[in-house]
Design brief:
By secondary structure, the chain is α+β, with helices and mostly antiparallel strands. Among the domains are: 129 residues, 3-Layer(aba) Sandwich (Rossmann fold), CATH 3.40.50; 69 residues, TATA-Binding Protein. Helices cover 28% and strands 22% of the residues. It has 9 helices and 13 strands. The strands form 3 sheets. Strands 8-9-13-12-11-10 form a 6-stranded antiparallel beta sheet, covered by helices on one side. Strand 11 and strand 12 form a beta hairpin. The longest helix has 19 residues. The radius of gyration is 20 Å and the shape is globular. The structure holds zinc ion.
Length: 291
């Protein structure tokens, strides 16, 4: 048995602070600010050239979820936020695609298998994404070994599924602390009656209701995605050059202006570093990238 094709979707680019836990990336990738999806594709192809690896440098959104996810045998969550996980959950339940939740924060790892029509879904256990103040990788950091444990457990379950042994997949939300060794499991064997997603089939996240601007994990930064058309990097670089430091390749343009750095992707999506305030980030975006 082998995995014939792997699709990697990521909206972010490699930074030095990622290297302690994201094992596919190198210091050179961070120096180049290479998009993570492309860096991962290159490394995976070096490991096994027989697997078809497709990289999408993109934000998974309600608008592109069907195009990016349709046809997959299983979806593996390696995201850093609940908006995307609830979107994955909606897509998976609506399309009948199995997905495997996995998360790591601090020294804590958690994972759960979602088999549409069989097990509970994410919304059966937690109707809404956690609100208010939750610990994030900004406040708690992430121990590299917690990521490795979460992903090993997740991928083991994927192997069971892909080899036709779904009956042996775990039917719980498993969480464990790799530091203290504490471990707990919550049953996820049955769908919860009245679950808004798998019971009532209300796919609010897939319909794009209430989608916020997104602050990015581990950094003082905000993602803005308001540009309706592709950006011409050469023209933008020429316009920005008198104002600050600009460099670009085919995949990313980076513009540094005082304490701020704007990283612009070809579709106009931009990560504004140097502030966690959405209003400030939007102002910088409007001023330098335009709408
Ligand atoms: Zn459910």
């Amino acid at each position: 048995m082998r995995v014939g094709s792997l699709t990697v979707i990521d909206r972010d680019f490699v930074e030095t602070s990622n290297l302690q836990r994201q094992l596919l990336f190198t210091e050179e990738d961070a120096r180049e600010a290479l998009p993570k999806a492309e860096a991962a594709r290159r490394r995976l192809q070096e490991i096994n050239s027989r697997v078809t690896v497709t990289a999408h440098i993109d934000d998974l959104t309600p608008a592109n979820a069907a195009a990016l996810l349709s046809g997959a045998d299983v979806l593996l969550d390696a995201t850093d936020n609940f908006e995307t996980r609830y979107l994955l959950n909606d897509f998976a339940i609506e399309s009948g695609t199995p997905w495997i939740y996995a998360a790591a924060i601090g020294s804590y790892a958690a994972t759960m298998n979602i088999l549409p029509g069989e097990t509970a879904c994410l919304a059966c256990l937690f109707s809404e994404p956690p609100g208010g103040t939750v610990e994030t990788c900004d406040t708690a950091g992430i121990l590299g070994t917690a990521v490795t444990v979460a992903s090993s457990l997740q991928v083991t379950e994927a192997i069971k599924l892909l080899t036709g042994q779904a009956g042996q997949m775990r039917r719980t939300l498993l969480s464990l602390d790799v530091w203290t060794g504490e471990r707990s499991e919550v049953s996820a064997r049955e769908p919860r009656p009245g679950c808004p997603v798998c019971g009532l089939r209300q796919f609010r996240h897939l319909r794009g209701e209430g989608r916020p601007h997104i602050t990015l994990c581990g950094r003082n930064s905000v993602q803005i995605h308001e540009h309706g058309r592709p950006v011409n990097f050469a023209a933008l670089a020429e316009r920005l050059r008198p104002l600050g430091t600009v460099r670009h390749n085919d995949l990313l343009l980076r513009f540094s202006y005082g304490e701020y750095t704007l990283s612009v992707f070809p579709d106009g999506r931009t990560v504004v570093q140097g502030t966690a305030e959405v209003a400030r980030a939007r102002a910088l975006y409007a001023r330098f990238v335009g709408s």
